[in-house]
TrEMBL record:
This is Hsp20/alpha crystallin family protein. It comes from Amycolatopsis nalaikhensis. Residues 26-138 form the SHSP domain. Gene3D superfamilies: 2.60.40.790. Belongs to the small heat shock protein (HSP20) family. It holds the Pfam family HSP20. InterPro entries: A-crystallin/Hsp20_dom (IPR002068), HSP20-like_chaperone (IPR008978), Small_HSP (IPR031107).
Length: 146
């Protein structure tokens, strides 16, 4: 099971839309990145939108049951002959943390990055999968699904 970690994220997004954000690259805290999360069979899949981010600028760490995704969108190369006309895309560090439940197998997490989307797959732990338990007693044996 995945749990949301930032209850104030929507308020931050609303404040940025209403009041505008500060200059690119001057975030007081890392900006959140949009994500989708769903269960597909025996794994959870989490997709993070990171358009324009170089794959080498993406970090994925797990400590205990906290998954941290950090990415940095760097400014375009500049020089004496370059004059920026429009700069609307946010720059800087983007970060997201997810608390993973004990029912997930954090030792077998996989990730791939394609077309600006980081896809993280987290398998459900074997101990959390449904299984049959044999019941012994007088007479015949029965199996009950746990």
């Amino acid at each position: 099971m995945l749990m949301r970690t930032d209850p104030f994220r929507d308020f931050d997004r609303l404040a940025q839309q209403v009041f505008g954000s500060s200059a690119p690259g001057t975030w007081s805290k890392p900006a959140a990145m949009p994500m989708d999360a769903y269960r597909a069979g025996d794994e959870f899949v989490v997709c993070f939108d990171l358009p324009g981010v170089d794959p080498g600028a993406v970090e994925l760490d797990i400590e205990r049951n906290v998954l941290t995704v950090k990415a940095e969108r760097r400014p375009l190369p500049t020089g004496d002959d370059v004059q920026m006309q429009v700069s609307e895309r946010p720059l800087g560090v983007f970060s997201r943390q997810l608390f993973l439940g004990d029912t997930l197998d954090t030792d077998r997490i996989t990730a791939d990055y394609d077309a600006g989307v980081l896809t993280v797959r987290i398998p459900v732990a074997d101990k959390a999968k449904p299984r049959r338990i044999s019941i012994s007693g007088s007479g015949e044996r029965k199996e009950i699904k746990a």
